[in-house]
Amino acid sequence: MNKSILITGANAGIGKETARQLALIKETEVVYLACRNLAKAEIAKKELIHETKRDIFEIVIMDVSNTESVKKAVSSLKNPIDALIMNAGGTGGKTPEKLTKDGVTELTASNLLGHVVLLDELIAQNKLNNVALFASSEAARGVQKVGMKRPDLKENSIEEFVSIFDGSKFKGNFDAYQIYGWIKYGGTLWMGNMARKYPNIKFVTMSPGGTRGTNGMNDLPFLKRIFLKHIGMKLIMPLMKMSHSVEKGANRFVEGINNPKYKSGVFYGSKENVLTGPVIDQSNIWKDLNNETFQNNADIAIHAFI
Fold first, then answer.
1. Which domain holds residue 149?
2. Residue 241 contacts residue 263 (beta carbons within 8 Å)
């Protein structure tokens, strides 16, 4: 059982709920709330202490879209952590296609690059003991029922992944709702490669499923956000078994780091035609997720920006 856990994007939504559930496990000794906004983090910490009756939460200021912020946060950690949950992400803000100083789109920075730097720094500084979990999405292999197409890569080459991460592949047609799945695909492959590079650490990729109450869609255009978040997720998708509560989504993360049945290098998510219920190995749906050459190429490509 993991005693110390760091969660990115922990002040709201699924990150905060994951922190709450972990605090209810008696073996948990400290939960680090990695957040970019101190005021929001302090409010979340106060609420979590009240809800769990345990004062075990520590704030770590970290903006995963800013690699220097990530490095500074890791250096500030006085003790190693047992587990890392890479939850922060979303649709890239108001300008998801805009390039950061590292040369990737804001969509890539917030969902992937910052977490790559975070994991690399933790390992380099011997500050991660047991397990790292990356929050992916069924969008990484396509979700036909909700209009998310499977990423259509031609070669899965290093160059093609670079063009995805810097947005050049999508010039003139940057739809963050669709490209989100391409980024999660790259991140899922990266985690598979990490599992082979570092066999003494467990690397689990887990989708929370179609989770209501998350902040991931807050940056979408107004009409699309209203429909997906408030009408689709709450009314239509539950009837289709395409959404569940934030509690169930967060529980996938808790189980992902603590349950030994989840294996290193595997991407777990919902069955093919739903976004709820038990999780399965997603490579059973799309074998490309388990291709070691593709995993190597995605890893090399994302590290080209570091």
1. 4-303
2. no
